[in-house]
Amino acid sequence: MPTSNLKLFDENKANMLSDEEYNTNTQRLNGVQTGVASSSLQNKTLYQTSLVAYAIGQLMIANGKDASDSAAVSAFVANMDATMLQKVKDIATTEEAQQGLLNSKYMTPALTKVAIEYMLAHDITLGGSLTLHSDPTTGLQAATKNYVDTTIASKVVKETLLQDIDLSTVKETYGATYIFGDVNITNLGYQIAKIVLENVTLNIRYDNVSSSSRLYLNFINITEGRIITSGSSISFTYNKTFLLIPALYYDNIYAKSKEEYYFQSGFSYNTNLFDAILIDKLGRVAYSGNSLNVYGLTMRGKVKLYGVKLN
Length: 311
Prior knowledge:
Blueprint: H1 19-24, H2 26-30, H3 39-62, H4 73-86, H5 94-99, H6 109-121, H7 145-152, E1 157-166, E2 176-178, E3 183-184, E4 192-207, E5 214-219, E6 222-227, E7 233-244, E8 249-250, E9 253-254, E10 278-279, E11 284-290, E12 293-310
Antiparallel strand pairs: 1-12, 2-11, 3-10, 4-7, 4-12, 5-6, 5-11, 8-9
Helix pairs in contact: 3-4
């Protein structure tokens, strides 16, 4: 356990000038003159001097260092130096630096680096505003509000409802039913078609079920296949949103017969290029059966078609 032999001189203050007397004392002001020195003046002077030494000794003890005049001068200086540099009040531990909860500890540059690295590696909620130096100039820099307002906000996405179809009003045509009317999205000035399915239910009726029965459904860009082992009907329910890129040409050659397949799952975007969106057979509903007699379709819910512009 660290110790100190630095003591207070005239610790009991038995013979000592008051502060008022010390403040105006001639020998304190001008130094000791020829004649008899004042013992109470010397006691006050030595008390104040020893008080500073005593306080430093206690600080060294609190920081785990010995404070003794019996040690070599170099050892005493080293202990005092370590005390002042290592813990003026108290140094934070690594865990305390990461938690950031105490205000009675101090941080070294190394601990500050640890705390920052911890914050970057974890979800941290700031208690105030974070001011960035400038607008970003590279991809991984954070964006300022000014950058968002002047650069990003100018590219606002605007969408317009073009068709709102209640499926209960769509007349079914056996084999393939088309939901949307004839709409060319690109000719209307839109870059993207957005289709929203709201509580859509497709109920398909069938009979002649066998062990090898299969049912196939194509609905917009959804393709489903089900194994049928019993019953007389099956329902498909959807709540989805599709964003469709421009599509009109198949292998760079316009082919109206291919329109209904543009957004089927088997279509290759790498080898088939498009520059428009033609919505006449995009809303196609087709169904068929294998070893199954499929004969009817009931549709409910809403299908909405939006044109989307990127300003």
